[in-house]
Amino acid sequence: MHIPSYAHDTIRAAVLPGVPTSRQAGGLECRLCGRPFGEDLAAIPLGPTPTSGLFGCRPCLTRLVTRARRNRDAALAQDAERARAESATWLPMRERHLARLNRVREAAEAAAEVAGDENIEALRIAWLLISLESAYAWIPETPEPPASAGPADTELKDEAFRLDLAMITARETVAERLAYHLINEAQSEDPEMCGEFECADDCSGRHDSSHIDCGPDAVFDDLAEHGVTVEPPEPEPLSPRLAALFGKDTAKEKTPPLPGIEEHVPAVLAHFGITADDTDALVSAAAVGLVADAWREGPLDQIREAADGPSDGEIFAQSVDLYRRAHTALMAAQDDGPESLLAFVAVASDMDLPWAGDSRFTLRMAPPEFVEELVRQVDDRTWFTAEMMREQGWHAALLHRAASATFKALHHFGMPGWPGAVATAMERIAVRDRSGAPEPLTNLEAVKAALLEAPDRLGADALDWISRQALFG
């Protein structure tokens, strides 16, 4: 008899209360109604295995399945009614907020355009910015959508982002206009200025400026006059052409970041079943290594231990998703250059992107100090891979990250050892009690296929259950 998944909880609630009799524990009587099994009443196993545990009869189980189906259908109807009621309240609220965001954004865009008009008095421009900032400050907090709205509706967030960009543009335009206005107002009306201009005979000597370039280092001297010391950056090296003019030799050969990597690392990888000349295997291992080095170690452990940190299943799912993105970025870098790795950095560092596996966790939920450290680590270590590509070539950079994967993630998804790890995990899960496991773990064949092809397809909850069972340990 097939027992649908939605009836499991109902049957479990009917079976577990009380202590079973010896006949029920021995599989001689139905645990639900107490009738003895025989030719007219077959025993249907309820677990934990087909030959041991408790048993029920078909009439009792049919009755419980029917009850569970009715309860499920009633719950679905209630959920649909609640979703309709929430939608009737939410949609007008959403539209009002979107309208306010759009109107203030349009005002910001118009203010930026007006601020660039030199025929308008500077004081009026200043008051225009004040009134714009007031309208921006009066925008209410973004309303929270009901759970039934789902995570796919990002229009409120997108419009708020567009408004922020428009406000930045308006502020920058007004600031530049007012800065030059003050500088020009402070200029003396000195007729000697006319020596640099072709001026009319009746010129007063006053010439307004709209662009001044003080060079890269003047700001540090200006700050020092206000008692603030900031070390200026190191001067840029001269180009070979200018260096030749000044008699300096800057064409000395640079030492590569990891000399000898092409000679020594292939043997190490071969020991772990990775052929350096096999592009697919090498890129896959390098993607695992990039995720392990740039994202998985260090700050992520502190983020996981925080109060609202991600579960092991959420980290598992996200690492698989980032592996795919790293793989795509590394492959693209072969033809498009190291800049392709920025796509991986953007996703790994995204503050508001929900993690894979239907997770609701985002980096913005974690303590800021740990997130800043993680973002910096992702950027720094991906930058190092990009530099290796520039200095020693695409293949050498892959060798570096692949070697890292063999030490840190030898049996992770994407490595040659992953199918073996899955086989071991499936042997262990087959003998575990899965009565409380998430629904995706019911069909073991589907679980095995998902683990081999796309583990995040099982969902963060299922991966978290697998992690707690230490099936890959």
Describe what this molecule looks like in 3D.
The protein has helices at residues 8-15, 22-25, 58-115, 122-137, 155-186, 218-225, 240-245, 261-271, 279-296, 299-305, 312-336, 342-348, 368-392, 394-408, 418-430, 444-453, 460-468, and strands at 44-49, 52-56. 58% of the residues lie in helices and 2% in strands. A hairpin with a 2-residue loop joins strand 1 and strand 2. The relative contact order is 0.07. Residues 248-252 have low confidence and may be disordered. The chain has 473 residues and is mainly alpha-helical. The chain has a two-stranded antiparallel sheet. Helix 10 packs antiparallel against helix 13 (368-392). The radius of gyration is 33 Å and the shape is flat.
Low-confidence stretches: 248-252
* SSE order: HHEEHHHHHHHHHHHHHHH
**What does the largest sheet look like?**
2 strands, antiparallel
* Structural class based on helices, strands and sheet pairing: mainly alpha
Mean of all residue-level pLDDT scores: 87
Please outline the helices and strands.
Elements: H1 8-15, H2 22-25, E1 44-49, E2 52-56, H3 58-115, H4 122-137, H5 155-186, H6 218-225, H7 240-245, H8 261-271, H9 279-296, H10 299-305, H11 312-336, H12 342-348, H13 368-392, H14 394-408, H15 418-430, H16 444-453, H17 460-468
Antiparallel strand pairs: 1-2
Helix pairs in contact: 1-3, 3-4, 3-5, 4-5, 8-14, 9-11, 9-13, 9-14, 10-13, 11-12, 11-17, 13-14, 15-16
